[in-house]
Amino acid sequence: MQSDFSDVTEGVLTEKAAQEVFDELKNDEDFFWEYLDDGCFARVHKVCSLLHAKGIYSEKIRADNAERTWLCSFGLAIRKEDMPEEFIYIHFHNAVVIRVRTACGIEERIVDPGLFDGPVTQQQWAEKLINRQSIRPDGTIDPSLQDKKYTRTAWDVFEKGLFWTIKDMDLNKTNTLLARHRKDAQRKTSGVPCVGCGFCCIKSPCPLAVKMYDLSSFYGGVTASCPVLSWNGERHICAHAEQYRGILAIGKGCLSLNSWREEIRCRV
Fold first, then answer.
1. Last residue of a domain, one of 188, 204, 235
2. Do 70 and 24 belong together in one domain?
3. pLDDT tens profile 246-265
4. What total of structural domains would you count in the chain?
């Protein structure tokens, strides 16, 4: 970050300065914000490090589907702005919390350039994140299934477990992760085709299958792979592919670049 925000007081930004910080981050191509599929964990850590160097208060916030447990999760989804009938499916989502001096006093704002054009309230941020099991077959959302849980961590905590904490102050781990996710983003935007390896449908059945075939488990995850996934001798195919092309992102290329692509065989 190149700007010198001289009006930062005890880490708190004015509304004008908060927007300037946001714009500078959003325009930094090093963060590739448009790739929402993965990488939020590393991006948020690097942003917090940059803000701290400028004397700006920050901490991290993580949103999870309330059904998530340490065993498994339904996960979250983000509706695509340019194609509202399609979703990006993720396990959780991280963002940065800053403090802003407003007419009402000092308030918290969420910085998430991948989803917004400026700092927003936590409620506005949460409304962008959709619980996967709430997506109906027709693409509409069940508002009664939107419970989420939120976790806060300090700006300098890279990863935290029950008995350990990693800080990564030199950003070595962070930059390694960002480099990997940047390559994933480049491969995805280059139009790598789906080869029907079955990885997505077997490892993480779509919300349609979870709801239609009652695949949900007591622990908040799924009990089996999709029952309408079949093998045609060359690739796996979905019985609902034509009917729900938009919701399932059929024809949009590979959504999970993985090793199964190298060995396409029957896995059902």
1. 188
2. yes
3. 667 777 777 677 789 889 99
4. 2
